[in-house]
Amino acid sequence: MTRSLWTGTIAFGLVNISVKLFSAIQESSLDFDMLDEHDKQRIRYKRVNEKTDKEVKWEKIVKGYKLNDHYVILDQKDFESAAAEKSKQINITSFVKEAEIDTIFYETFYYLEPGKTDSKPYALLRDAMIKTKMVGLGSFVMRNKEVLCVIKVFRNALILCKIHFEQEIRPLEDYNIPSENYKVSPAEIKMASSLIDAMKADFDISAFKDEYTENLLDLIKKKAKGKKYEAPKAAAKKLPGDVTSLLDQLKASLAGSSTSKKAAPKKKTVKAGVTKSAVKRRRKTA
Fold it and tell me: How far apart are CA 116 and CA 118, in angstroms?
């Protein structure tokens, strides 16, 4: 198990639950080193004093905030005292319907593990949220930053989702997006709806995999052995020559979708989540 990123308590009402915070996400991309083209030696990054050009040891580095052309130096106690309660407590301020939170606000996900003696209040909060179909909205301080968060249920666990503050979301007015009154014909909407209906499927996350990383790792292994790598060819998608309008494209797409659906073999539905086979694949590629 990985090391916890934060330790504290969840507080809702007068109930306190001691918890540890663990990252719920592991990247599937490959980790590359930066090398010198000449001798293939690794490039190191040094912390250098911009005035003396000398390297500074990590333990000699302090944090400062520039105010009126002068730096105010802060230590860890200063950061903690600025939010003494929030540094060690996730305070649930309200319970809301999850559907009311737009997905654009979600940022990062973490597992919450209860303390050794707090399994019962942990399970109580989990089961109560399942019954009421609500999620907890709160905040805390992590790594010297105020974090807005949602606590929700994933399978049998409580998970914490960091969410963005409203001011962190860029306004749509900055972009050239078609207005809600943009003219689309009823026939086009009907045909697009039919195409969506024809492409409906149960959500199965195990059906998707990071093919690019797998192909890249295969290329690296072949290159190490002096072998040539044959890049996979993308399936060509061609529209009939008489297809020109958007409506014609929808009709052709619908016909193609119906044909491919008949030819596709039936597949057992797998619940969304991290499967054992997915974990094994990640370990092999790690």
Answer: 6
Whole-number Å distance between alpha carbons of 40 and 9: 48
Q: Are 160 and 150 in contact (CB under 8 A)?
A: yes
Q: Which pLDDT value is given to residue 273?
A: 44
Q: How far apart are CA 225 and CA 217, in angstroms?
A: 13
Q: Which is higher by pLDDT, 185 or 261? A: 185
Where exactly are the structural domains of the chain?
A: 6-28+80-167, 186-229+245-285
Question: How sure is the predictor about 141, in pLDDT bands with cuts at 50, 70 and 90?
Answer: confident
- Strands 89-96 vs 70-74: parallel, antiparallel or unpaired: unpaired
Rounded CA separation 169/67 (Å)? 27
Distance from C-alpha of 84 to C-alpha of 282, rounded to nearest angstrom: 39
Q: What is the 3-state secondary structure (H, E, C) of 181-203?
A: CCCCCHHHHHHHHHHHHHCCCCC
CATH topology of domain 6-28+80-167: Ku70; Chain: A; Domain 2 (2.40.290)
Q: What are phi and psi of 276, to 5 degrees?
A: -65, -40
| 64-111: pLDDT as tens digits | 999 999 999 998 888 777 764 556 889 899 999 999 999 999 999 999
From residue 64, give the alpha-carbon distance in Å to each of 60, 68, 80, 112, 161: 13, 13, 15, 32, 30
pTM to 2 decimal places: 0.70
Q: Are 19 and 113 in contact (CB under 8 A)?
A: yes
Under 8 Å CB-to-CB from 217, ≥6 apart: which residues?
30, 285
Angle of helix 186-198 relative to helix 246-263, nearest 10 degrees, comes to: 20
Contact 25, 108 (CB under 8 A): yes
